[in-house]
Structure formats: structure tokens, C-alpha cells
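User: I want to check something. If I give you two sequences, will you return the structure for each one separately, not as a complex?

Assistant: Yes, each is folded on its own. Here is the first sequence with its structure:
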Amino acid sequence: MIFYFSATGNSEWVAKQLADILGEVTVSVNDELRNPQSDFTFSLSDDERIGFVFPIHSWGVPSLMVKFIKRLKLENYAGHQVFAVCTCGDDAGYTNRILSDLLKKKNLTLESCHTVQMPNSYIVFPFFDVDSDEVEHKKVEAAPIRIRKISKAIVDGIEDKSLYNTGSVPRLKTNVIYPLFKKYTFGQNPFTVSDDCIHCRLCAMKCPANNIRIENDKPVWGNQCVQCLACVNHCPKRAIDYGKITKKKGRYHFVESKYDFTHRNNESSRRKMM
């Protein structure tokens, strides 16, 4: 069973590729958090693995993934294998340590954590922008090879440290920048919507925090924003901005049909590993 959180589609796609190779089912954390009827209880079969897939948020675990894990209840758990895969534009810092500590409080042992480099979507910090088209395509088209290597490590039950990219100065990134990100980005953020809005309501549908309501056919943001930027990156008319800082920056969300995966053969990979 693979639990995935995804704002712009990178982690959803990676989770589904893993699930296809490993023979696991996927569960959308976004949907569970938005569902008022969910009690966050899931029943495990004897041969299931437990996976967590999510994007790196400022070199740490996204706050909504933290919220989900704290509520998670697993029935029939009996030492099942636990793994994680983080998607990141560059590196992950010590996100694996944060996740391991979080899971320990649920009596779960994180056996391996891996990273898959995917296109950048965070455009709020100064000097942060989406990747060029060339870099974006290179990252996505290289991802299936990485995913197959990760899947093999999971099947073999090994922790291959070469499949986790800590990056430079991880202590600064995870122990200093990540706590500041959580403290100062949560809540009411300065989103604006222009007259280019076509009233499609996609921003409200995509918001995993259920933080956007529609008034007079325009989005209005509440005070539960986690700055995932799903609303900004999915808007089909670029009508949504974060203050002025995103006005001249690009937009990105994952669209599989944009990329050339002719070299990929998941079914063959699955047969070799299972």
C-alpha cells in the first residue's frame, strides 16, 4: 500500500509507477485529508509493503503528509516493510531522518528512503523558478530508470544510499531552513487572482488543504495554506499569483503526455523483479 501526497503531480506519477512495478495499491493522501468521512484507517494484507511518496518541502516532510501520518491507523500491521520515496528538484537534506522519527512514534520502522529528481515547481523564494523545458524533460525522462532501481532495492530489502540524494549542507537546510519554512509559510498567504480567471474552480479542486472557497466566481484563500502552490501551478490561465514574486516566473504541473517514455518498459521490469 503506497500513500502519496502530491500538489503538482510529480509524486502522484512516481507513486503510480512504483505501484505498477511492485504490485501495490495507491492511496491519495490529498483525497483522505479532504474527505470529512475518512477515519484514516487502512487494513493491510500479509504480503503488502507500506510506502510513503511525497515531494520535498524546503528539505523536509510536507506538513500535510505529517498531518496524515499522525492520524494514520494500520490494521493487521505485523512488521511489514516500510519505505519512502521523495521527489525533489535537487536534493532532500535530512528529510529521511525527520520521516524516520515521525514513523517511530507510530511504531513503524522506516527501512529505506529514496529520492527521485523531478521538475521544480516551487517559485516563491527569490531566485527559485521552474526548470527550462530542456532540464524538465531530462529529469522526467530519466526518472523511470531511477524508479526501477529504487523498486529493485525495495524488493531486495536493501537500503542503497546512492539512491538518496542528501545534497550539500543538509544540516542547515533541514535543521534551520525547514523549521523557518513551516513557521512562516503556514496560514494566510498573499495570493491574488486577476481578471484572466475563467471561473473553472480548478484551484479549489486541487487545493489539498481544502483552503480555497469560491465567492462571486473567484477563489478566496483561507488561513490554512501550506504553500504547496497547487493552485498557482494548475491555473490554466496563469491568473493566480503569490503577491508579486511569481508574476514573471514559470508554471509547472506534471502532464505525462509531454514526455517521451518509449524507452520505458514497466511490465518487463516488473517480471524481472517480482
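And separately, the second sequence with its own structure:
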Amino acid sequence: MTRQRRPRRPALRGLVARFFALLVGAVVAAGLIVGVQVPLMHRAATARVTLGTIAASSSSVSSISWPAQGSAALVIPSLGVAKSWRNQVMPIASLTKMMTAYVVLQKLPLSIGQTGPCLTVSSEDVATYQLLTKEDQSSVVVEAGESLCEIDLLNGILVHSASNYAVLLANLVAGSTTAFVALMNRTAVSLGLSGTTYVDVSGVDPGSVSTALDQARLAVLLMQSPLFRSIVDQASVTLPVAGTVDSFTPYVGTNNVIGVKSGRTSEAGGCDVMAMTFRLGAKTETLYAVVLGQEGGNLLGPAGSAALALARSALASQLPHSHEFLSTKSLGTIGWGARRVSFGVSVNSEVSWSHSQRLLRVNVHMKRLTGAIHQGETVGWLIVHATSTRRLTLRAQGSASPLTLWQRLL
């Protein structure tokens, strides 16, 4: 008897074969995708920082050059600096006219472009001019019937130190110099200028006294007025009858000096209140250097030189050091082996740090990156311990990718 064979099931076998083929294909495809797309998952990019040490330049380290005689003061409002040297009460000569101007502007406020009230010069005013000229006081010629306005008088006392104009202003505001001097002293008390006393409106009397620090503080207040600042920044001024007269303030218009006032008498010596502009980051700031009691030459020359030396030394020793991080400069590289890209700050950034600190303290904090790095991508931060702590974003300056698993296998 012959045994009968069972019929094969080709349809089932084909189905199983196709299933296994699809399964193997899927596994291979997944492997290819993983091999091509997945980087070295457990190896983060490493950074190599080439920032180096940032130090203050040797030229910026110096001491303050206080004058060898008299007294002096230094005020830098933007830095909170207010220093003095031998801050004794001394005659201040024509620095007195700063308070004259301050009281006038308090009583008769004036803006740039305005003239203020005007007066007509009398024969008595002409006689006052002649008397002051005989006493060798700085004055400007006047004529009876001449019209002088507040702005003319302020220009005259601040630029050419005209004592007769100071008398005219006192009469205009208070009716007499005696009443005006009383206003000056009350104002000094209200401002906390404890070392300051006035006995006249011009400063020719040695009884008008102050300290260098008081005068620096008064100058700071005055220079907050755009009008006052514009007046003392003039190297010369043109007056109605006197014509063009020059400033007695040393160095005004040069060396970044913008005023403020100078003075001299035999008792006071040479005195100078100097305002000088300087750059602090993106801003223009003002420094005030005051010297009193300087001797030698015509008195004003030594006073101006002493004030200039003081101001320059202050800029060198008191200003914060600064450094600019440029977005175009590389601060290091990040990546994997030879596959690296440079990085730097995202935008140009200037930082300042204390003049007493030689080195700028910085820390670099990098992100943990395991995937491709693209140009412009944030890769970390630069922490700068400057005048204030700054956090500067670090961005990739190019693109880089790690080796894929497929590349590793090959």
C-alpha cells in the first residue's frame, strides 16, 4: 500500500519568508538610520579656552599728583570719588564769582538762548569800573546808557572774571552788594559748604574764603546747568561795549578742559577749578580738579598746570580699567577631536573693573553639547567679574559635527 504525501503549503512558506525579510530589512534600515543620524551619545563636546589673562595696562597704574603747595581737591561724580589734600580754609580770589553766578541763576533762572532781564549802565557804574581798574581788578569797560542783560553779565564774570559785572549782577538781583553777599552766605550754608564764607561778590577781599573740596562741590552743582556749562566752555566772549575778551581759565578748550573758573590775588595765590571730560565706556563724564594757593609766575599759570597734572593723574589712577571683547575674536574652540569650531562673544562688549584690581576675573561656563553644533548657536557663557558681574553669551563661529556610530564602525 503506497503512503500518500501531504500537499505542501507554498503560500504559508512564502508569507513566513516575506515576514522575516521585512523584519531583517527593518532592522538593517534602523541600524543604518541610527548609524548615520545618531552621534556619539555619551561623548559631549569638549572646550579649549584660549582667553588668557586680561590685565590692566602698566600705564594705567599710578598715584594722584597732588600739588606741592597750597591745597587741592578731586571730585569724579560718576565714580563716587571725592578726595582732598590739605583741605584748609583759604582765600579763593575770583573763585568767589562761582557763588555769585550760582545765586543769580537761582534767583533769575536762565536757559540757553535767553537773555534774562536787562539794565542800563549808569554814571555810578562807570565810576565803579574806573575804581576797580585802578585797584588792578579784572573788569571790562562800560559806558553810561549801555544796556547789559543777565546773559552778558554772566558771560563777563565767568569768562573774563569782570568784577564790575559782578557788582552789576548783585545790584540787579538784591539791590545792593551787601544784601547779595548775605544771600551768598545763606546759600553756602544751605549747600553744606561749611568751610566757605563770603565778604564780597568778586573775591578781591581775602576775607572771602573756602576749601578746595567746597569749591569742587559747588562747581559740580553749577555744571549741571547747561547754560553755565556753555558759558565756561568759551575761550573768549564778545560783550556789547567791551568787545571780545579772553578767558582767564587755563587750558579751556584744550586737553578736554571745559572750564570752570580761575582766580588770583597776592593773598590767595593762584586758584583754579578745572573741569575735564573723559570717556567712561560709552558715556562722556566730567572730572573736577581744584587747586588753591599756588605760587610762582603770574599765579594763574602754575595753578592751571597743577590742576591739569592733578586731573591727568586722577584719570590714570582712579578710572576703572577696561577691556572690549570683540565678537570677531575667538576665545577658544569646542568640538570632538579634530572636528572643532571656534567660539566668541555674541556681540561686542566693553567691561570695566576697579582701578585697584590688576587682573580681570572671568569664568567660562560651557553647555553640554552632544549633537551637531551650528554657526551662531549658543555654546556657553563668559562670566565676567567686573565693576558689576556680567554674563556674556558665547556663540559658535562655525559649524561642527561629531562622528556618527556608522563612521565609528567604519
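Because they were folded independently, the notes below concern the second chain alone. Residues 63-319 form a domain with the Beta-lactamase fold (CATH 3.40.710.10). The mean pLDDT is 89.
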